[in-house]
Design goal:
Low-confidence stretches: none
Structural class: mainly alpha
Radius of gyration: 22 Å
Order of helices and strands: HHHHHHHHHHHHHHHH
Largest sheet: none
Distance between the termini: 16 Å
Number of strands: 0
Helix content: 55-70%
Mean pLDDT: 92
Length: 392
């Protein structure tokens, strides 16, 4: 197995563990507030799970892309292929168990019920959005290369996305559930029957097409941090190699690019990102469903702060043993997502209801969530011990 960046795996593992908890309560009607998403605007710890995962994907992308000195067509096609495969896996999870478990109309034939079922299956989803964001961010990273160009691309994307929302928004407002243009784009693209209907029964899909551009910005923030880590490592290695010829310059380079300076730099970048989010939120509401510009920098800032803390604890202080369970979860994120989705959706075969077994209050709902996360951890721990990493 190739050497991996431990603190990044740990952050991704913590994110996955929290994802298993918040996405699988004993009952959706009884959850502690911290485990609930904010309504339309605002941000709770639960709203940070998704962008944290995307941020980690961007960091890992920087490590993966370091092998491309001069990326050609083959590199772009590989990125697009991986994005398409992630989208396909997400679509298959939406379709699982691949047939209707309950007939829409008992008087209809199986074929009629099956056709109706297909006509009302959701197209978009979490993995689908991740696949689209990976393809967009990956191609931009390969094309632009330089950090300042990528920062400029993020700025252009945020301004353009906000401008589109404002230009084509309707009453009661461009950033509202009823007035945003994102919903109309998805209705036109895939049809209302294939959209998510969890927001007051509307056709708004929080993982729709337009917002994927902003999710790509979250990924690019991670890519910038990952690139900074790699550049510091390279400069450190160069300083060590040139120590004999120019000891003073090498010593200065080693100080500037030392792991503690990298962690501090990541912390400062995180603070700046949070400050920018606070300023933007004066005009642009923090909204996870819309993945607004202020939300990009708010979530990205917290992700940088979390990573800097883990870089200090795990990488600098060497405190890895307590975080090993999270590292195991973070090394197989795709498997974690697939197992989580398949297990939860398989309950229909057994007519199993967690609330009927565990009860229907906040505490028992959390107990079930923790047990569910433990099951996923057990699967990933076995893969970790066998040195198996499943990726596309």
């Amino acid at each position: 197995m190739k050497k991996r960046y431990a603190s990044l795996d740990v952050l991704r593992g913590i994110t996955i563990a929290f994802m298993c908890i918040v996405n699988n309560p004993g009952t959706w009607s009884h959850m502690y507030p911290i485990l609930r998403h904010a309504g339309w605007e605002g941000c709770t710890p639960t709203d940070l799970v998704y962008p944290f995962f995307v941020f980690c994907m961007g960091c890992a992308m920087a490590f993966s892309f370091s092998k491309y000195e001069k990326p050609g067509l083959k590199a772009y096609l590989k990125v697009l292929k991986r994005g398409a495969l992630i989208f396909l896996v997400g679509l298959l999870l939406n379709l699982y168990p691949f047939f209707p478990t309950q007939p829409h109309d008992p008087s209809w034939s199986f074929g009629q019920n099956y056709l109706y079922w297909l006509q009302h299956k959701r197209i978009f989803g979490v993995l689908q959005r991740i696949g689209m964001a990976y393809a967009i961010a990956g191609c931009l990273a390969l094309w632009l290369k330089k950090p300042f160009r990528i920062i400029a691309a993020i700025a252009v994307a945020c301004i353009s996305y906000t401008a589109v929302l404002l230009a084509f928004g309707r009453e009661p407002g461009a950033f509202t559930l009823e007035g945003n243009v994102s919903m109309r784009i998805d209705e036109w693209l895939v049809g209302g029957d294939h959209c998510y209907h969890g927001y007051s029964g509307t056709n708004f899909d929080p993982e729709g097409l337009l917002g994927s551009v902003m999710t790509a910005c979250s990924c690019l923030l991670g890519y910038l941090v990952g690139s900074m880590i790699l550049r510091s490592r390279d400069r450190m290695n160069t300083a060590v190699e040139g120590e004999a010829s120019d000891p003073a310059a090498s010593a200065l380079a080693k100080v500037r690019n030392s792991p503690d300076r990298v962690a501090l730099r990541t912390f400062v970048y995180g603070g700046c990102s949070l400050l920018l989010a606070m300023v933007l939120s004066i005009w642009i509401p923090v909204s996870k469903p819309l993945w607004s510009a202020s939300y990009v920098f708010l979530a990205g800032g917290w992700a940088m702060l979390a990573l800097s803390f883990l870089m200090y604890i795990v990488d600098l202080k060497g405190c890895r043993k307590p975080f090993e369970p999270f590292q195991a979860m973070g090394m197989n994120p795709l498997m974690a997502f697939i197992c989580s989705g398949v297990i939860a959706k398989s309950y229909t075969f057994f007519k199993f209801s967690p609330s009927a077994v565990f009860g229907a209050d906040e505490f028992t709902s959390l107990v079930y969530s923790l047990l569910f996360a433990l099951v996923i951890f057990t699967i990933l721990w076995i893969l970790y011990k066998k040195h198996v990493v499943i990726k596309l």
